[in-house]
Amino acid sequence: MRHIIISILLFSVFLLVACSDSQQTSNEVEDDNGEKTEQEEDVSNQEKGTSTDEKDAENDTAEEADQQEETAKDPVYKVDQETSSIVPIDQDSDTNEKVVLLTIDDVPDENAIKMAETLKEHNASAIFFVNGHFIETEEGAEKLKKIHDMGFPIGNHTYSHPDLTTLPEEEQTEEIVSVSDRIEEIIGERPTFFRAPHGRNTEHSKQVVEDEGMTLMNWTYGYDYFEPYMDAEKLKQAMITGEGPEAGVDYSLLKSGANLLMHDREWTSEALGDIIEGLREEGYEMVDPDLIQTKKNEN
User: Fold this and answer.
1) Which among 13, 74, 134, 189 has most CB atoms closer than 10 A?
2) What does the pLDDT read at residue 92?
3) Using only C-alpha atoms, what is the Rg of the chain?
4) From CA 293, how far away is CA 87, in angstroms rounded?
5) Is residue 198 left, alpha or beta, with left meaning phi > 0 and alpha meaning psi from -120 to 50?
6) Cα separation, 258 vs 223, whole angstroms
């Protein structure tokens, strides 16, 4: 009798184990044929996420390329090398002739960032001509990078601001090329424009500028380096009217295409906003330097 009872108990245990295994196998089959397991769900979601991220990255790249293409502007003005004025490339076009170009030399010293901010506030642009000795330090380099990042074109104004006509050719080359090299180190591109200190070039400096792919630029008028105009109010009037009687100019130099020279100076920075608005009230548009034909965009 005892043997019978033990046999029955063993048989019952065997049945329970078999049922449990069967249920587990059934659940596994259901997982395979029905809903995915939690682990499979995680892997699937990760794969989907990766695919989505890749597509988003591709879309972002395409959008950036489209934006760059839209930003690129065909030049409609050029620099008249005889007068330094800014004139339409096609004289028969409907391009606005009543424009002036703003330029700022001797940057980045103490006022360049403020002047860039003022230009932004007044929705105007300008070319910033850089002196190499200002960008040797980390502080100067950061100033230049900030000006460039704000969208302003950068020009070369030599390293130490010498009269190039007094230097041997080798030194002229060094004064120009060293600045372009340093600018490229900081902003990743070489300058587009060149302006000689005091407006004095040599045949050699012109050739170096040509070889460097820069566009030569002088100016038509400017007054902030004359002592009587080292005053914001006087300077404002002189730049808006084009007249500088205390600098020997008792007639107006303001005309279509005028290339206006200013410097990184406290009084110029203070007057800049009023100069922009005053010129606009006279009917002049501030020309976008990106619309000027250069060695880099003429083709």
Assistant:
1) 134
2) 84
3) 35
4) 10
5) left
6) 14
Q: What is the pLDDT of residue 175?
A: 98
**Residue 203 has which token pair?**
């045949």
Farthest-apart Cα atoms in the chain, separation: 137
* 170 vs 180: CA distance, rounded Å: 16
User: Given a cut of 50, is residue 154 above it in pLDDT?
Assistant: yes
Contact 182, 175 (CB under 8 A): no
pLDDT per residue over 262-297, tens digit each? 999 999 999 999 999 999 999 999 999 999 999 888
Query: Do you know the residue count of the chain?
Result: 299
Residue 144 has pLDDT above 80, yes or no: yes
Q: How far is CA 80 from the centre of its chain?
A: 25
């506030």: which residue's tokens? 121
Token code pair at residue 274: 């009023």
Average per-residue pLDDT for the chain: 85
Identify the DSSP state of 221.
B
Q: Is the pLDDT of residue 42 over 60?
A: no
Q: 174, exposed or middle or buried, with CB in 10 Å at 0-12, 13-18, 19+?
A: middle
Sign of CA dihedral 156, 160, 163, 164: negative
Peptide linkage before 108 cis (omega within 30 of 0): yes
> Position of tokens 């600018």?
183
* Nearest-angstrom CA–CA distance, 212 and 155: 12
Average pLDDT over residues 178-183: 98
Task: Retrieve residue 150's tokens.
Answer: 């704000």
Q: Crossing angle, helix 232-241 and helix 266-281, to 10 degrees?
A: 40
If one counts every other C-beta atom within 10 angstroms of the C-beta of residue 233, the result is: 12
CA distance 162 to 264: 17
Distance CA 86, CA 81 (A): 9
What pTM was estimated for this model as a whole?
0.77
Whole-number pLDDT of residue 39: 47
